[in-house]
Write a structure and sequence with these properties.
Length: 414
Amino acid sequence: MTETLTIKAAYDVGAIRREFPALNRDVKGKPLVYFDNAATTQKPQVVIDALVNYYSHYNANIHRGIHTLAEEATAAFEATRDAVKDFINAPSREEIIFTSGCTEGINLVAQTWGRANLKAGDEVIVSNMEHHSNIVPWYLICQEKGAVLKVIPIDENGELLMERFDELLTEKTRLVSVVHVSNALGTINPVKTIVEKAHKAGAVVLLDGAQSTVHLDVDVQDLDTDFFVFSSHKVYGPTGVGVLYGKKHLLEEMPPYQGGGEMIKDVAFDKITYNDLPYKFEAGTPNIADTIALKAAIEFTKEIGKEAIRRHENDLLSYATEGLLQIPGLRIIGTAKNKISVISFVIDKVHPQDLGILLDNRGVAVRTGHHCAQPLMDCYRIPGTTRASFAMYNTKEEVDSLLAGLQKAVKLLV
Ligand code: C6P
């Protein structure tokens, strides 16, 4: 990055924006306002360059060849593992498993840890604000094993009812799997307390960090979580890569997930020895280019500084919340005290999809629908919301465009 120092000194959002080529484009003749960051963030030039550089200069398979290209590719791939280890403060690189994303990370734990440890009558606890990725894998394994899936309810503000969590925890609880930050509400959950309580009850904990990793400082040792998952594409990195962090003693005891090359030491038809961590869980040729480019995304974020980014995003959240509340008939869904920069809302007599289309006509990209969190929508008795989610490069002027678009839409539709 060329302008890092300027950015650091005064949070120069203009300089940050210049690093993201996609932000320059127009949509329907209007400058793009990209507020769908919780779905996926835009990519800075350094990430795009890392991809092009790999394919242009050292495209090779990793861990297999002894030729120069293979060694360069392996070194770059493994350097991302070290960068991720530091990014989430994991104790060791062996505990960082590359996956295709959050979804695969959770499925991996359900299919390996879950299959090995759950039996009939055991209990798994999730919450009412989970993404489908943190419901369906547990539903499947609980069905297979005869285990029971229990749900922590939420209140009207979108906060977990912690006293109900206390009641749900029993000696039968084997695992608690909750979202660190809700994608549909923005709520930051008290995950440290959840981990402490679950551990006291003898259960292990998985935290879904899909939405938290980009906004908060994640320290898996401080959280003391057993498993943590996130996706590269939500932290300014490429799609198709994710991370599963797991405590070493648990990963070592878990059976492999997929079988194939790389995850083995010795193969004979009557006996197979598995590879050491982390490779035991990385069968086949991985997503080399995108994993390498994830390191560029992490370094980019670190250079700007997560704290500065968070301050900027919080300003946008307050500014947008104030503005949205002036729109007639608008109700914010998710009013927790502790929130990240995600605002979901509904407007009386307006369907979120109509709103999404009208906003897109003005170049404003938001997400509409149930946000892959149908049980949460059922809880609020709504089919879906309109969601604006802010990233490091968004501006108050862009929020003004959203507000103007909403004012117009309400006049047209109500
Ligand atoms: N949420 C959203 O627009 P993947 O698809 O594996 O990268 O991430 C899944 C996932 C898991 N948990 C949470 C809390 C999430 O928000 C997501 C992805 C996107 O909100 C796409 S549905």
